[in-house]
Amino acid sequence: MINRNIIIAFCLFSIVSCKNDPNNGNQEVSSNEGSKKPNIIYILTDQWRGSALGYAGNPDVKTPHLDELAQSSVNFTNAVSVTPVCTPHRAALLTGKFPTTTGMFLNDLYFPEEEVTMAELFKEQDYSTAYWGKWHLDGHGRTNFIPKERRQGFEYWKAVECSHNYTKMPYYDNDNTALKHWEEYSPFAIVNDANQYLTDHANDENPFIAVISIATPHYPHGSAPKKYKNMYPPETLTLNPNISEEFKERARKELQGYYAHATATDEAIGSLLSKIEELELTENTIVVFSSDHGEMMGAHGVKPFVKQLAWDEAARVPFLIRYPGIGQNKGKVVNAPLTTPDILPSLLGLANIEIPEDIEGENLSELIKNPDPNVDRAALIMNVAPFGSNFKDAPYRAIRTRQYTYAVTPDGPTMFYDNISDPLQQNNLLGKTELQEIQKDLDHKLQQQLQHIGDSVRPRDYYMKKWNYVFDKKRNAIDWWSWKEGTGTVQSPQ
Q: Is 218 one of the catalytic residues?
């Protein structure tokens, strides 16, 4: 019996030692069952392209703090937005479901409180929940008060439906119905408040999930602080060769402010990362940096500010994730794409929380803990009902793999790019005889993705009628501006 006990004790010691070895890249996020679960800090920016960062190889933009974060994180180089525009991305992020399932495929829809969301799932595990900044899921106008029951489980609340006034950003302070305004450039103000929250909750018995939704570098770009704009004289900025001649001058002007917002926001994020370090939260906190979508900035003949499209400028976003026990995985790269609904189940997986069966995204936590640049998968991108500036565009479904982008509209295939040999997506390979088998395989992978969620490629009107949505006839979008006159109408999947 003594010998048997010695053997058992030795085995248990070996297992625990392996898990706690700082050089073991496959360390568990929470090493002991029953220990405090990891905090989660999710930094959500707006319209930040995956290419617009120093660590991504951009020759112009200065993002030293995010570059440093990349060195201590796993970097998903081909992360994509499931629908490259605000509301659909945010709904998919919070639910782990695709826009065709929730009906949240347009901006300014009301996200019904009946949906089970990120905050609610973590609250069930005794997490405190907090949200700052742009929400864009309430559908009751862009500056109206959002009551607690419509905040999808977030308790601490310093947010507004939607604003891009970075010098006088409005917000609501928890349950105070009076509209307030941040007193400084909003990325700095929001992060300062978040830093105070971290300070107040660093030693709590229960973990927290904090979503810090910073609205930059979304336009208007001219409102970026002068100090940062002066860092980017337009004539010195590099333009990609896929930017059309008609938009080159405008692209330089917009890039000046875009990069200025990016650098200022990087500085704000640097303050947040320093606070995490100062409070000794690093060893038990998952940190994510990402964006809801990118923007075209004149590429492929599409004017600046426009998104919603499957080209990388709009669809590819940054995604860095740092987690407890990352060990030798610091700075490693995953080239397999990740799409928005994959994020929630992956966070749940990292926190050792059961994933609800109706979540449609894939739990990539094992890939995060064992990053392999050669792994491949197909990530779904879609635009169910193009609106606003994209109203004349065809709806599409697309997949991004490690190497290819492939897209189909109701009229047939439209995109086939080899993103390794052609990173600016200038050579459409559709119909190339020598690539027929690859195209056929990509089409098969796309159809598999659609079958998984019960979707198919149909005209916009089909989905508009299915969900009873109506566009304003002049702007071809959900009418959010009439709320200012007191005549707004809620449009919602339920």
A: no
Burial (CB count <10 Å: 0-12, 13-18, 19+), residue 3: exposed
Closest by CA to 430, choosing from 415, 441, 443, is 415
Give tens-digit pLDDT for 169-211. 999 999 999 999 999 999 999 999 999 999 999 999 999 999 9
Q: Give the tens place of pLDDT for each residue, 79-90.
A: 999 999 999 999
Instruction: At 98, give phi and psi (nearest 5°).
Output: -85, 155
Of the residues 136, 140, 201, 221, which is catalytic?
Answer: 136
Q: SS3 string of the chain?
A: CHHHHHHHHHHHHHHHHHHHCCCCCCCCCCCCCCCCCCEEEEEEEECCCCCCCHHHCCCCCCCHHHHHHHHCCEEECCCECCCCCHHHHHHHHHHCCCHHHHCCCCCCCCCCCCCCCHHHHHHCCCCEEEEEEECCCCCCCCCCCCCHHHCCCCCEEEEECCCCCCCCCEEEECCCCCCEECCCCHHHHHHHHHHHHHHHHCCCCCCEEEEEEEEEECCCHHHCCHHHHCCCCHHHCCCCCCECHHHHHHHHHHHHHHHHHHHHHHHHHHHHHHHHHHCCCHHHEEEEEEECCCCCCCECCCCCCCCCCCCHHHHECCEEEECCCCHHHCCCEECCCCEHHHHHHHHHHHCCCCCCCCCCCCCCHHHHHCCCCCCCCCEEEEECCCCHHHCCCCCEEEEECCCEEEEEECCEEEEEEECCCCCCCCCCCCCCHHHHHHHHHHHHHHHHHHHHCCCCCCCHHHHHHHCCCCCCCCCCCCCCHHHHHCCCCCCCCC
CA angle 226, 272, 325 (to 5 degrees): 140
Which of 11, 18, 65, 86 is the catalytic position? Answer: 86
| 11 included as an active-site residue | no
What is the reported pTM? 0.93
CA-based Rg of the chain, rounded to a whole angstrom? 22
Sheet of strand 404-409: strand arrangement: 379-383, 396-400, 404-409, 412-418
